[in-house]
Design brief:
By secondary structure, the chain is α/β, with parallel strands linked by helices. Helix content is 39%, strand content 24%. It has 7 helices and 7 strands, in the order αααβαβαββαβαββ. Strands 3-2-1-4-5-7-6 form a 7-stranded mixed sheet, with helices on both faces. β4, α6 and β5 form a beta-alpha-beta unit. The radius of gyration is 16 Å and the shape is globular.
Length: 209
């Protein structure tokens, strides 16, 4: 698949997600993938090696949760290569995103990507979630294959605003994890449709009672 095919695949996927993004933003999304593929060869940032697969498994997968974001401040916990935070930041210039990871090579990549893309609404922080003390909490705290639900909530309880929500992106429905959730929380399981992806995806939306 060449660049023109990736452009078409992304555009078709965005249409299926009913997410209207300007052509400039779509070009930025693909430029981010190019940078990720280049760094991945040396630093092993993601198991997905093929840029064609990255369109589906990284960009469209990340953007599938876009309708569930709330508020002006979003934290991406264990962001890794910037997923889902960087695609979401490109799609939501009015929101501020903090991309949190404790791994130095991953935060260096994210810092380079944010600079290259001119992303003024994204901030990269190298630290562990439990050690991070922001000036104000977040309306949405998101993770993509970061940890079990119980650990995710325990490590980020201080980051989520009282009326905020957690969004935990998962593959198969994590029934044992749902049963292990602490009291005082309500979890809503939302199936995710990712255009072009056969594997099952879901997001667990969690709020305080």
């Amino acid at each position: 698949m060449n660049q023109a095919d990736r452009v078409s695949r992304l555009a078709a996927g965005l249409e299926e997600l009913q997410l209207a993004l300007p052509s400039q933003v779509q070009a930025q999304l693909l430029a981010y993938l190019e940078l990720l593929a280049k760094w991945n060869a040396a630093y092993n940032l993601t198991a997905v090696r093929d840029p064609d697969q990255m369109v589906t498994r990284h960009l469209l997968d990340s953007l599938a949760i876009n309708p569930l974001l709330q508020g002006a401040r979003v934290a991406d916990i264990g962001s890794g290569a910037g997923l889902p935070g960087i695609p979401l930041a490109l799609a939501n210039p009015e929101r501020h995103f903090v991309l949190l990871d404790s791994n130095g090579k991953k935060t260096r990549f994210m810092t380079q990507a944010v600079a290259m893309l001119g992303l003024r609404n994204a901030e990269v922080v190298q630290t562990r979630a439990e050690d991070y003390r922001p000036a104000e909490p977040f309306a949405t705290v998101v993770s993509r294959a970061f940890a079990s639900l119980a650990d995710f909530l325990r490590l980020t309880a201080h980051l989520c605003a009282p009326d905020g929500c957690w969004l935990a992106m998962k593959g198969e429905v994590p029934e044992p994890e749902l049963q292990a959730l602490p009291a005082g929380l309500t979890a809503t399981l939302r199936p995710l449709h990712v255009p072009g992806l056969d594997a099952r995806r879901c997001v667990v939306e969690i709020r305080r009672n």
